[in-house]
Design a protein that fits this description.
twelve-stranded mixed sheet, 40 strands, alpha/beta, 4 helices
Length: about 350
């Protein structure tokens, strides 16, 4: 429980109405009741507030709602996230190394670490203080894991991977699997040893069933604050810049370099060795086949600046008709050229 006044201090907002009303949870506009806090991030839901039974509403300044307790702030969606975090039950205390976990004698385990049954921790692994490792995680030799990380069930972390602080791995994430490297040998292929590593910097979150390949040489690096959705494939030697977000089923081919604060829609793709600038947005199903400048939105495959792609997309549906028209015009042109030629003889 928290008062509206306390929550206002948390999000650096202000209260309109009863500042002492107690809030126990956040709920959606249509399901909220007494003791609940809801939020309005999209103005199109404003008409729904009239029937809303919530004790208070998080809302941005400039929107007038009469007869309601309001928590006013600049970014309601961010405020919602902060309040939701604050109202969560406290994290469970450390359980230590539970029976059924296998931890190598040479591993270094920090204070307050929880290691659940079925976990395998290899030789010379370092696990930072406060980290939680859920069942059936396998950590190969020489891995370094920072403090306050959260590694969910079924993850595999291959040898020599380095993880910073507060990294989250959702269930089934695979970190440091071999990159897809094979040298042609006649009709066969010779496997190229993948001897590099993966580095996850501080505050990175990797979604469920993501696959991040180790580098051939050097490192694959996901920089600070990046967030990867489920089912994302990151190939060997890729570098993803700080605070980038990558939606589900996106794939990045080997050695591509992504600038900071990039945004990738679902099922987007980046070709190998391509460089993308800072603050770039690649729309869903977009394909970056060549270097792209930063501070722009791109769509389509191959990716074009979004406005250019919109103009092009208007033409796509008329292509068969345009082809017929061009064919007809071409025949008429040939006939006219033939007539002119005959007249000049």
């Amino acid at each position: 429980m928290a008062t509206l006044e306390q929550l206002a201090e948390l999000i650096e907002g202000r209260v309109v109405g009863d500042s002492q009303v107690e809030i126990r949870r956040i709920q959606t506009i249509d399901q909220a009741g007494e003791g609940d806090l809801t939020f309005l991030a999209n103005p199109k839901y404003l008409p729904h507030l009239a029937a809303c039974q919530a004790s208070a509403i998080i809302i941005s300044s400039g929107i007038d709602v009469e007869g309601k307790n309001l928590l006013i702030c600049d970014n309601p969606y961010l405020a919602f996230a902060k309040v939701l975090t604050a109202l969560q039950p406290p994290a469970s205390t450390s359980v230590g190394i539970m029976e059924g976990a296998i931890v190598a004698p040479s591993a270094t385990i920090g204070e307050g670490v929880s290691i659940y049954p079925g976990v395998v921790v290899g030789e010379n692994v370092v696990v930072g203080a406060g980290t939680t490792i859920y069942p059936n995680v396998v950590i190969y030799d020489d891995v370094e894991i920072g403090a306050d990380c959260l590694i969910h069930a079924g993850c595999i972390i291959r040898e020599r991977t380095r993880m910073g602080q507060r990294v989250i791995l959702q269930p089934g994430a695979i970190i440091g699997s071999d990159g897809f490297g094979f040298a042609p040998d006649g009709e066969a292929y010779y496997k190229i040893p993948q001897v590099g590593i993966v580095v996850l910097e501080d505050d990175v979150e990797i979604g469920a069933c993501c696959c991040l390949d180790r580098a051939v040489l050097g490192e694959t690096r996901i920089k600070q604050g990046c967030k990867l959705d489920n089912l994302v494939q990151i190939a060997h030697n890729v570098v993803v810049g700080e605070h980038s977000v990558v939606a589900a089923q996106t794939g990045m081919a080997g050695s591509c370099k992504i600038g900071r604060h990039a945004t990738f829609g679902g099922q987007s793709a980046v070709s190998g060795h391509v460089k993308l600038g800072d603050n770039i947005t690649l729309a869903g199903k977009g394909g970056a086949a060549q270097d792209l400048e930063g501070n722009q939105v791109y769509s389509g495959t191959p990716a074009l600046p979004h406005k250019q792609w919109l103009k092009s997309s208007l033409v796509f549906g008329r292509l068969p008709e345009m082809r017929r028209e061009i064919s007809t015009l071409n025949k008429r042109l040939q006939e006219l050229e033939k007539q002119i030629k005959e007249q000049n003889q």
